[in-house]
Amino acid sequence: MSLLNKLVVSAMPFIPKAVVGQVAKRYIAGTALRDAVRVVKELNSMGMMTTIDLLGEDVKDAGEAHQVRDNIIPILRAIKENQLDSNMSIKPTQLGLRIDKECGYQNIRSLVDEARRLANFVRIDMEDAQTTDGTLEIYRRLRREGFTNTGVVIQAYLHRSESDVRALVKEGANVRLCKGIYNESRSIAYKGRQEIRDNFLKLLHIILEGGSYAGIATHDDYLIDGAYDLIQKLGLKPAQYEFQMLLGVRESRRDQIVRDGHRLRVYAPYGEQWYAYSTRRLKENPYMAWYITKAIFVR
Length: 299
Ligand code: FDA
Description:
2 domains; 8 strands; binds dihydroflavine-adenine dinucleotide; alpha/beta; TIM Barrel
């Protein structure tokens, strides 16, 4: 990260929310469900699938977690009603995992059950490392109960991920692989850019060779090119994997992946609680300092 970007990151809490919002709007489909439906329709018409995420994380109590569950059910129904090519991504802490494991489980189960009724799929996002065991437990309990319409996320920066991936592949899991976004300690996570990339490609190899369906979630050319090589080497068909990218990021590379004949899914978040997600995205943007400065001075 450039020195200027580091400076802007440390100043972020003092930057007016309106300025952050102006710069971050490219990453968000809008604040209402109708905005998400419109954006998803557009992406579908461009040959891309999507996964919708209702923004928010870490709720304060069980009542709030139930409310989030009740707010996600209409999204699953809207996907069906509007015949969208989209599934759902959900965050366990938004559904109560950190308050009470059983509450988190029951809320997620209700969503996966409703998704199954609607012939849809729910991806359980992976959050910070304190939630990894709990999240994998929820996923496995759902599978034991017979739900096949759900999948997990593995973060390439965690040391534990290789053993998690080996076990998940044996279980026939559908795995999204990403680098990982949370600030984990050196004792449990790789920190170097290249070592995370190396582990990403190693894990992807294990997933694809083991016959599991992979969501290859990255905007990094090095990893996209590495994935192309693996796909070719293993002789995979496009139905065995998909690339995944975040809304508003690297659109020209995204379009190229589609033109190359691969399946591609765009992560489309929407909702009122856009701030935490947007600041994480801005921190990953190499031009963030420039965009923020422009938003402050050129208004
Ligand atoms: P990297 O950050 O190195 O980006 C590669 C290049 O892409 C950059 O050099 C830059 O050019 C461009 N770029 C990346 N981000 C940008 C931005 N915001 N704005 C502009 N340009 C940008 N993490 C997690 O911990 N749990 C999860 O469940 C998920 N889920 C998830 C789903 C999907 C579909 C994606 C794509 C990503 C996630 N992530 C995630 C986030 C992931 O872990 C990671 O933080 C980001 O994808 C950034 O990593 P890259 O592999 O893109 O590399």
